[in-house]
Amino acid sequence: MSMDQQDLDPDSTTDVEDVINTEEELIKECEEMWKDMEECQNKLSLIGTETLTDSNAQLSLLIMQVKCLTAELSQWQKETPEIIPLTEDVLVTLGKEEFQKLRHDLEMVLSTIQSKNEKLKEDLEREQQWLGEQQQIMESLNVLHNELKNQVVTFSKSRISNELKTKMLNIKEYKEKLLITLGEFLEDHFPLPDVNFKKKKQNIGESTAQLITLHEILEILINRLFDVPHDPYVRISDSFWPPYVELLLRNGIALRHPEDPTRIRLEAFHQ
């Protein structure tokens, strides 16, 4: 409690009693005024008990209401409500109440501000920690960048071009070796039909077109796939030995056209 409140406390009891007495007097005066109004209304209701006809009922009712309001107005004009005097004691009491209310409100505001300050302090510490970590990362990256700059080796365009040409030649040589090895494997394990088979075929009356090896069939399919990728299908001619075609289809090496069974293409294993 402050020094001002200690000085005002001895008179606080007397001020409160004065306010209570003033309130009781006002309540009594209001009750007396209410009784007088009830009496006036009873008198007016007795005066207006005559029977009204249907033609002038509304007019008579309005006249009665005007009389009631006039009587009530006259009664209020006679009364002079007593105004509480703004003495020093009353003002001091009201000031104390306002001061207590203001103090309570300020304490609530102070508590709210302190809570927000604590939250902001925690956020600031967390952001400072994150900033320190980012600065350490940046320093490490700068060191690494400087080390890489010192290790950069300048390559001339001619050197890069020569290296690419060398790689291309190596790839072509490796490709040729693969094709030769594949051809030898196919010739050993998948030869053309023998002469007796050709004679039987001629006796049956089938086409006598020159058959090509499985190696040649694969080369045709491979060339078609890379030369015309938008239409890689090859029509099956009489030079394709049917067992070899069936072998490629059954093992998933070749695929038949979905709409034309006389055309096949190589499976795109490179994709």
UniProtKB/TrEMBL annotation:
<keyword id="KW-0137">Centromere</keyword>
<comment type="similarity">
    <text>Belongs to the CENP-K/MCM22 family.</text>
</comment>
<dbReference type="Pfam" id="PF11802">
    <property type="entry name" value="CENP-K"/>
</dbReference>
<keyword id="KW-0158">Chromosome</keyword>
<protein>
    <submittedName>
        <fullName>Centromere protein K</fullName>
    </submittedName>
</protein>
<keyword id="KW-0539">Nucleus</keyword>
<dbReference type="InterPro" id="IPR020993">
    <property type="entry name" value="Centromere_CenpK"/>
</dbReference>
<dbReference type="GO" id="GO:0051382">
    <property type="term" value="P:kinetochore assembly"/>
</dbReference>
<dbReference type="GO" id="GO:0000775">
    <property type="term" value="C:chromosome, centromeric region"/>
</dbReference>
<feature type="coiled-coil region">
    <location>
        <begin position="103"/>
        <end position="177"/>
    </location>
</feature>
<keyword id="KW-0175">Coiled coil</keyword>
<dbReference type="GO" id="GO:0000070">
    <property type="term" value="P:mitotic sister chromatid segregation"/>
</dbReference>
<dbReference type="GO" id="GO:0005634">
    <property type="term" value="C:nucleus"/>
</dbReference>
